[in-house]
């Protein structure tokens, strides 16, 4: 199946182990004592953000604030899942037995993480320019699918910036097994807690914290 994915991507990996690692969820890695994709996900997250930043800079004349908002919407978990589903990426993910039985193949966090890890692997194996070409192929054609995505972090940031205040996100709690963690985050402004959110990924928890802050309609100005 990995060979078929290479055909879809139009890439022949020099190091097949990198591709396998990108597709390996921690549940499978722990069961089979093999590397899994969390480190590649970390790298791929930064790679995709840089690729989107370059694309927006070169192909638009919008302001820095609007570029920031557009980038955040375009690389959030929900957006990554939309891109990944266009190539049926979930079909190639290696899952542990328990995760497979619990319908983990359809979990947005697992799919989004694998998509980021895939770009981390492509960047390491093929270099920046091949990663950018793949980005143009897998991401850019589907940006019009993102109109309904609510990016609460950017909305809150935009509002707070108008008052010259600073937002920070901090993890409060992390629970659950390695393959099924739950995170709790708080969003603060100058040390004051505005909202708390829970999610299956750190990004989701941050988004939910920002959502709560917006729903509470706190007096951020003060």
Summary, kept brief:
By secondary structure, this protein is mostly helical. The chain is built from eleven helices and three strands, in the order H-H-H-H-H-H-H-H-H-H-E-E-E-H.
Written description of the protein model:
The protein has 222 residues and is mostly helical. It is built from eleven helices and three strands.
Helix share of residues? 55-70%
CATH class of the largest domain: Mainly Alpha
Biggest sheet strand order reads 1-2-3
Distance from N terminus to C terminus (CA atoms, Å) equals 56 Å
DSSP strand tally: 3
CATH topology of the largest domain: Ribonuclease iii, N-terminal Endonuclease Domain, Chain A
User: What's the CATH H-level homologous superfamily of the largest domain?
Assistant: Ribonuclease III domain
Shape: globular
Biggest β-sheet description:
3 strands, antiparallel
């Amino acid at each position: 199946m990995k060979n078929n994915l290479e055909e879809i991507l139009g890439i022949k990996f020099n190091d097949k182990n990198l591709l396998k690692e990108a597709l390996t969820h921690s549940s499978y890695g722990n069961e089979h004592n093999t590397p899994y994709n969390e480190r590649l996900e970390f790298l791929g997250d930064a790679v995709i953000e840089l690729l989107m930043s370059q694309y927006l800079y070169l192909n638009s004349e919008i302001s820095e604030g609007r570029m920031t908002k557009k980038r955040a919407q375009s690389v959030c978990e929900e957006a990554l899942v939309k891109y990944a589903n266009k190539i049926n990426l979930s079909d190639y993910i290696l899952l542990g037995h328990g995760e497979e039985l619990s319908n983990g193949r359809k979990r947005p966090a697992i799919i989004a993480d694998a998509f980021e890890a895939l770009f981390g692997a492509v960047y390491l194996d093929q270099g920046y320019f091949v990663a950018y070409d793949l980005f143009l192929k897998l991401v850019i054609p589907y940006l019009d699918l993102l109109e309904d995505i609510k990016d609460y972090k950017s909305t809150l940031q935009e509002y707070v910036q108008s008052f010259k205040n600073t937002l920070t996100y901090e993890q409060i709690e992390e629970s659950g097994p390695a393959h099924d963690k739950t995170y709790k985050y708080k969003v603060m402004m100058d040390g004051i807690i505005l909202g708390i959110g829970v999610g299956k990924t750190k990004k989701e928890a941050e988004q939910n914290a920002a959502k709560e802050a917006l729903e509470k309609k706190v007096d951020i100005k003060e």
